[in-house]
Design brief:
The chain has 167 residues and is an alpha+beta fold. It contains 2 helices and 9 strands, in the order E-E-H-E-E-E-E-H-E-E-E.
């Protein structure tokens, strides 16, 4: 079964309106990719809300947002600067980012400030591992939201598990 959703642009976008077809199990990010084809607005710049103001989260399925055929979604431009927080377990730092930047670019900023190599940590937002090639806007970040910086454990254990056991 499929949904037929009305999409209206708001804010800085030229006024446009159209219908997009999607399945109940389609993720919001996949819906944004379909909207990108129709409205010529890259998915990372799209922020979708219901008329009631509920923000649609990229990794959720449309069914989780309880959308029905005929519902109207508002498309808002989110290519903006905002301050976010990055927590590394011992302290939190503030970063000014653009939602059009990639996770790799944020990783480089964190690496330079924290003096730790980028291959020694990964970033996570709301329990979702962030992928280097994704745009920050793909994660529905909001002002002063917190991204977790997770350190990778050095090395690895082989053989007897480093317990000094002999066979």
């Amino acid at each position: 079964m499929s949904l037929h959703l009305n999409v209206k642009t708001t804010g800085v976008f030229p006024a446009k309106e159209g219908t997009v077809k999607a399945g109940y199990n389609t993720t919001v990010l996949d819906l944004k990719k379909e909207i990108a084809k129709k409205f010529s607005v890259p998915a990372y710049r799209q922020r979708l809300t219901t008329k009631g103001g509920e923000l649609l989260l990229n990794w959720k399925c449309l069914s989780e947002h309880k959308l029905n055929t005929g519902d109207t979604l508002l498309l808002v431009d989110q290519d903006q600067s905002l301050d976010i927080l990055v927590r590394n377990g011992t302290h939190t730092s503030s970063y000014r980012i653009q939602l059009s930047q990639t996770v790799a670019q944020l990783t480089k900023m964190v690496q330079d400030r924290e003096l730790i190599r980028g291959n020694q940590f990964w970033l996570c937002f709301e329990e979702q591992n962030m992928q280097d090639n994704d745009h920050l806007g793909d994660y529905a970040l909001s002002p002063l939201c917190t991204i977790q910086m997770n350190l990778k454990l050095p090395g690895g254990v082989t053989g007897t598990g480093g317990l000094g056991l002999t066979g």
